[in-house]
Design goal:
Elements lengths: L1 H11 L6 E3 L19 E3 L9 H22 L2
Antiparallel strand pairs: 1-2
Length: 76
């Protein structure tokens, strides 16, 4: 899905606003039980002037993985 959004971003010439959250730590996917905890949301700086959708996807994914690792490590 990221690729379709980035294709639209390039066509419309608007920045990409990356964000990541750790809700999966409290609300695991496909599970009935939910756990108490704090959910953190990190909003990154807009990504502009992207040459290709593939490059934007790579840059956004790398940013998201790094931030998710950071907020996961804060709890340990």
């Amino acid at each position: 899905m990221l690729g379709a959004g980035l294709s639209l971003q390039k066509k419309m010439k608007v920045p990409v606003l990356p964000l990541v959250h750790n809700s999966g730590d409290c609300w695991p996917a496909h599970r009935f039980l939910k756990y108490p905890g704090k959910i953190k949301l990190v909003i990154g700086a807009p990504i502009v002037n992207i040459s290709s959708s593939a490059e934007a996807a790579k840059q956004t994914e790398n940013w998201a993985r790094e931030r998710l690792n950071e907020i996961s490590l804060e709890d340990n």
